[in-house]
């Protein structure tokens, strides 16, 4: 009786219960604990607790989708993981099951709820689709309307570049999807449009005409109410609320080296810029927007990759930055012998792919990369009237 009373005293304290749940390693364990009773569900699913849990346990990287170039099919590279995540890793790789030749499916973007935006070939033409292999393994993807059809409906007769953007969070795989289109007519200007997916088709949300946008677009990223368009010369920023456009110049040292830098999201107020300079120095800069005004770049860190790789007994060489993920702060690096995932926060290094010998081959092995992390936020059970969990 005394032991039961002591246990009840501990588990009846929400603060102590939260500290206990915080020691669970994965968000999937939170879901299992939440099934115990309504109190545990209430504590585990509260926004404040989830924010704390995420800060301690960032979403675990499951692996990378490596999109094949001309010389090999696309594939999934699992990251090192404990046995508890083996099922999730298998589901992540299952997106290729319906396509015997993986080269015909390219994973372009991923989201923390496990949603994937892919491009695949049907009858020799490319189409975009949304898959959710972690939540719905084996289920067919949802085909999106053609971006070229949306371009023709615009009435603008000129060249068009299209980019589908996944929102950070959504109640379903399609809600909040955006199609960004950049039209050029040969003059020093561009028309930039945002279309939103609704009622099964793309509908115009907003547009702007600007002289600020360079011709060569490298990357498009949505961060809160802003869209960042990276070019070789600078970064074009479009504020979707105020419909204003601005340009961010790169840091002075940015132009050292051949590779272009990559952006991370900080939050709605800024971005990180990361790049390998001098072939072995990983540089990180931060740029924030303060009170609606663009600030300046601040150097945050310089990491000697030769020192990191030597410390792990790995070979060194000329490093190429192939992907940068904002959470949990990892980068994908390529050197002559293979591809490595480096976690900037924990300073851990993992080899993901051993490069086969290249004999008379000049094409890149892989064209692009997309990571997949564990689902966040976790999907908790819904209490139905008459079937509530026990207190």
UniProtKB/TrEMBL annotation:
Domain F-box protein AT5G49610-like beta-propeller: 112-380
Protein name per the record: F-box protein AT5G49610-like beta-propeller domain-containing protein
Organism name: Eragrostis curvula (weeping love grass)
Transmembrane feature ranges: none
UniProt-listed InterPro entries: AT5G49610-like_b-prop (IPR056594), F-box-like_dom_sf (IPR036047)
PANTHER family: F-BOX DOMAIN CONTAINING PROTEIN-RELATED
């Amino acid at each position: 009786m005394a032991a039961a009373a002591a246990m009840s005293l501990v588990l009846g304290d929400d603060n102590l219960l939260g500290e206990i749940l915080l020691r669970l390693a994965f968000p999937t364990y939170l879901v299992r604990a939440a099934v115990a009773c309504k109190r545990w569900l209430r504590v585990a699913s509260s926004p404040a607790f989830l924010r704390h849990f995420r800060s301690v346990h960032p979403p675990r990287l499951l692996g990378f989708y490596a999109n094949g170039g001309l010389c090999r099919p696309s594939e999934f590279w699992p990251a090192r993981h404990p046995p508890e995540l083996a099922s999730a890793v298998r589901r992540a790789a299952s997106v290729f099951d319906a396509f015997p030749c993986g080269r015909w499916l390219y994973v372009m973007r991923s989201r923390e709820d496990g949603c994937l935006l892919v491009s695949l070939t049907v009858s020799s033409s490319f189409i975009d689709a949304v898959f959710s292999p972690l939540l719905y393994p084996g289920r067919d993807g949802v085909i999106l309307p053609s971006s070229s059809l949306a371009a023709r409906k615009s009435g603008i007769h000129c060249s068009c570049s299209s980019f589908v953007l996944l929102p950070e969070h959504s109640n379903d795989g399609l809600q909040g999807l955006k199609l960004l289109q950049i039209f050029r007519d040969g003059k020093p200007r561009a028309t930039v449009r945002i279309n939103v997916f609704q009622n099964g088709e793309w509908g115009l949300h907003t547009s702007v005409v600007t002289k600020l946008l360079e011709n060569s677009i490298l990357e498009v990223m949505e961060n809160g109410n802003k869209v960042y368009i990276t070019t070789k010369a600078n970064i074009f920023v479009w504020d979707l609320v105020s419909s204003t456009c601005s340009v961010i110049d790169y840091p002075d040292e940015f132009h050292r080296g051949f590779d272009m830098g990559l952006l991370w999201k900080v939050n709605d107020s800024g971005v990180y810029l990361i790049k390998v300079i001098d072939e072995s120095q990983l540089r990180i800069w931060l740029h924030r927007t303060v009170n609606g005004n663009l600030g300046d770049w601040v150097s945050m860190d310089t990491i000697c990759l030769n020192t990191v790789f030597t410390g792990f007994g790995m070979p060194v060489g000329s490093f190429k930055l192939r992907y940068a993920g904002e959470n949990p702060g990892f980068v994908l690096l390529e050197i002559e012998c293979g591809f490595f995932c480096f976690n900037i926060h924990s300073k851990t290094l993992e080899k993901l792919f051993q490069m086969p010998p290249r004999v008379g081959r000049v094409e890149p092995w892989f064209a692009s990369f997309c990571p997949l992390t564990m689902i966040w936020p976790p999907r908790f059970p819904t209490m139905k009237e008459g079937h509530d969990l026990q207190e």
